[in-house]
Amino acid sequence: MKKVLFLFSIVFSFALQLFAQQEQPNIIFILTDDQRWDALGFSGNNIIQTPEMDRLASEGIYFQNAFVTTPICAASRASLLTGLYERTHGYTFGPNELQEAYAANSYPMQLKKAGYKTGFFGKFGVKYSGFEGLFDEGDSYDREVKFPDRRGYFYKTISGDSVHLTKYTSHQAQEFIKNSSAEQPFMLSLSFSAPHAHDPAEDQYFWSEDVDHLYEDFKFPKAPLSADKYFEAQPEYVQKGENRTRWYWRYDTPEKFQHSMKGYYRMISEVDLEIGKIRKTLEEKGLDKNTVIILMGDNGYFQGERQLAGKWLMYDNSIRVPLIIYDPRNPGHRKISDFTLNIDVAPTIMDFANGTVPSTWQGISLADYVIGKNPAGERKDFIVEHLWKVDIIPASEGLRTKDWKYFRYQDDLEHEELYNLEKDPMETKNLAKNPRYKDVLEEMREIFERQAAELEAEKVK
């Protein structure tokens, strides 16, 4: 009898999970700007204070090998929107708009078909003149570059008071949740501008008084790989490019380095503080038990490693990001080592919404991780690319597997880099010219070129 009851309890539990998945939950997707994977307490960072993000991770699914396929905000956000690699959707950081065919097939348009009310607040970051038609409620804004000082982050107001953009975006989210209807599920996309530096300003990083006290007396340790030899190993066009220019802005003196690190961490902690307010609003509205929360960074970030700043390059500093999924209907923590990508977010959202995932999308839904499955477990590699053609940032492309990284620069195909990540996770020993690894180099190059051609072939004609 006990055995029968035990089996019944297992079947009943599984049935409840399936029923929970069949409902249409509310969904909130939180995107931060330039938050690298280890700028999160739960990642093992003992310095940064991110209790709300850590709580989401500890109560949900934490993906420790999450990456973006393109390490620049605009193209990465287009990939998040469309579920496609940059090589397919073709949107970079240039003057052209995202093509209408891709926007029409994006996750907000699919969600409308699934009966969702959609909202977007913050940095959209994709040039598309039809933004107003994508969401039922939408407000696209970013740092105000005409202000070369803190006003770039403090030009929005609440009740007549100027507030930091992080607080403004959070306020809009809270109002959206308060005004939501029990008759219709919602999907809310929040895109914080923080912790992106305000590029025109000498001080670069700006935050609210709420987090002014954090890290005040802490001295950040020197960045790894900051010795001259790691910079000198870079090709000349990297040494003279934007990654180096921004290193001078942020890290070239001990004083700048301390200021920039404290500012970056404070801005992330401020986002974390606002996430707590948003979750409290969900609780007050009685929606906390039926709202899935997804959190991700749009790209990684250099903090002085190799004497560089910014992102754009193919090193893991640039492409590895935090990713968390919290589903209160299926509580329980898992730490996942599978490769997960920014192109997976759109199908994941649609899967949670019980909508139709377009067959043209290239990502994998991660939704079933919350019920103990491993949908991305078979992914063994992925393409990384930065295809914007601009003089100050060399376009590059490559392939990453669990144990190997291969990449090259499009205007200098003779320069290739190959790293054994198992033995050299910091990517310091380029094996591309080592004859012992000729076969590995050729295999990685061949796999990359074949997959790149396949992605090119999937463009809208």
UniProtKB/TrEMBL annotation:
The protein's name in its UniProt record: Arylsulfatase A-like enzyme
Superkingdom of origin organism: Bacteria
UniProt signal peptide: 1-20
A family per Pfam: Sulfatase
Domain called Sulfatase N-terminal: residue spans: 25-353
UniProt-listed PANTHER family: N-ACETYLGLUCOSAMINE-6-SULFATASE FAMILY MEMBER, N-SULPHOGLUCOSAMINE SULPHOHYDROLASE
Record carries keyword Signal: yes
Keywords: Signal
Keyword field contains Signal: yes
